[in-house]
Each structure stands twice: as C-alpha cells, then as structure tokens.
Design goal:
mainly alpha, two-stranded antiparallel sheet
C-alpha cells in the first residue's frame, strides 16, 4: 500500500473515532436531557442528598462482592486456558479495568489494561486476549441467562409492551450464537475460515474448548449469573430503603434488561442509557420516574466511586507486589 494512502486511511480512522466519541457524548447528554425534562433535576438531586447511610453501605458491599466474583471468574477462565495466575495479578487487572471503564468513554481501555497486566506477567498475548474476550462473553451470558430464566415472572404490563417478546428474542439469539460455537466450520467443499481473519477461527476454537470444560460452567456461567442476581437484589434492597415501591419480582425481571441496554456502546460508560432504560422499564411496574431515575443515578455514582477506589488499590498493589505468575 502506498505511504500516502496509508496516512490517509490512518487520518480517516482518527476522524471517525473522534466523530464517534462526539456522538456518544451527544447521545449521553440527550438521554439525560430527556429524562430530566420529564422528572426534573431538583427532586432527584434532593433525594440523592438525603440518601440513608444504609443505602451507601448496601451499594459498597454489593460493589465489593461483584468485584470479588469477577476476579474469581476471570481467574477460572485463565486456569482453563492453562495459565495459573496469582490472585494479585488477576485482582490488579480487574481493578484497573473498573477504573478505566469509568474514566474512559469506552470499555476497550479497561480490556487493554487487563491484557497488559497478563502480558506483563509472561502470559502470551493470544491467551491474554482470548481470556478477556471470553470473560466479557461470560459477563454478557449472565445477563441474558437471568433475562431468559425470569421471562415467566414478567407481569401483564411487560407482556403487553412487547418487552417479553424482545427478551425472548435476545435469549434465542444468544442461545443460537452459543450453538454455532459447537458446529463444524466447514460447509460443503469450502470453509468459512477462508472468509475470516485468522484470529476469529482461533478464538472460536478456544471458546469451543472452554465451553466443554466443567470449570467454565461453574466459575464462568455460575458466577456470572450470581453477579446479576446480586445486582437485582441490590436494586431491590436500595429501593426498599428509599421507600420506593419495587417488588423483588420486578427487580429480577427488569433490572437485567437495564444492565443489558446500558452495555450497548453508544453512550459514555452507560450513563444516560442506563437512566433512560431504568425509567422506562421500572415504569412498567408503576415505579415513579423520579424514583427510578434516583435509583439509576445512585447505581452510577456507586460504580464511579468503586472505579476510583479500584484505581487507588491498583496503585497500591503495583507498588507492593510486582507482576508474577505461578508455574
């Protein structure tokens, strides 16, 4: 490729990345503008300022437990790949990821930091990349599995709104994707691999091997589901402490959908998208928009503070414990 053309392509990619970043900021601000126009900023702000200490404790304990479970899950994935890493290395990776996911407009920065932690601990780049991608896949799997399992618990309003149909579609698409990992890639006289980058078939083969590993079904899917159930229980408990009328059934059926929607990468760290989804979905169960928005903002602030604490702990671990891996 001529040098000039290469420079033009690099410049176009940079411009595209800048435009996408501006679009994400615009979408985030638009979502906030819409929900605050409906609810009003002052009532939400007043409720946040009057948050009971019990809610702060609940959010802190829940956040810490989620991090512990995420560390446990990722270490299990690494062990399934033949890399027995120390708890310190894995903890550093998860903590820096949580920090960067809140500090940067994209989760790619956090993923890259986790990969760098492993590479610095002598893990091959290919395995480091595969472990992070598959761990991401397991996190998404936990959300979708809870969404699918709680479909029978949805109320009449969710059924009439089409939410159940959408949830069933997402679950079916996910199940189909997992099924594709178990079928041969060869079709007739040709192969799908010829049309894909080498890294794609390599990852699919790794994912296929991991899915056949019993540890993955315990560490991976089990812990991912447990994390999502913990989030649902936290939202329910916080709502109860804030005197918000949210049933446990509603929390189990609706909160995973909020988390799923906030993971779609069209806003900054899920802000705005999470608030809009929380107001819309909890509204199906009669939760006031002001109360739903307050819950969402409290969850966002908790994640932000958890990321900051994670970053500080990561600095402390890096000073006291150099990267290493167990043989």
């Amino acid at each position: 490729m001529p040098l000039g053309m290469h420079d033009r392509l690099a410049s176009d990619k940079t411009k595209g990345a800048k435009l996408w970043l501006l679009a994400k900021f615009a979408i985030t601000l638009t979502c906030f503008a819409v929900v605050f126009a409906k609810v009003g900023a002052r009532p939400v702000w007043n409720r946040i300022l009057s948050t009971p200490s019990s809610v702060i404790l609940l959010l802190s304990v829940s956040g810490a437990l989620q991090v512990i479970l995420a560390i446990w899950r990722w270490r299990g994935v690494l062990r399934s790949l033949g890399e027995s890493m120390t708890w310190t290395v894995v903890t550093r990776g998860v903590l820096v990821e949580r920090f960067l996911n809140q500090a940067l407009p994209s989760t790619l920065g956090g993923d890259a930091a986790r990969i760098a932690e492993l590479v610095g601990s002598k893990v091959p780049l290919a395995k480091a990349l595969q472990s992070v991608i598959f761990d991401r896949f397991l996190g998404l799997a936990g959300i979708v599995l809870v969404m699918g399992a709680t479909i029978p618990l949805n109320g009449p309003s969710s059924v009439s709104s089409g939410l159940v149909t959408i949830t069933a579609g997402i679950f079916a698409a996910f199940a189909g994707g997992v099924a594709l990992l178990t079928v041969p890639w060869s079709i007739g006289s040709g192969t799908i691999e010829r049309c894909l980058p080498r890294s794609v078939p390599a990852f699919v083969e790794t994912a296929r091997k991991l899915l056949s590993c019993p540890r993955i079904w315990g560490y991976g899917f089990g812990l991912s589901v447990l994390i999502q159930l913990l989030i649902c229980a936290t939202v329910y408990a916080v709502a109860a402490e804030m005197h918000t009328a949210l049933s446990l059934r509603a929390a189990l059926t609706l909160v995973p959908g909020v988390i799923f929607f906030s993971l779609i990468p069209f806003s900054i760290a899920g802000w705005g998208a999470r608030e809009g989804a929380m107001v819309a979905l909890l509204g199906l169960e009669g939760v006031a928009s002001r109360d739903a928005l307050t819950l969402s903002v409290l969850l966002g602030i908790a994640q932000l503070l958890l990321g900051l604490v994670g970053g500080l702990l990561r600095l402390g671990l890096s000073r006291n414990c150099p990267p290493e891996s167990l043989a």
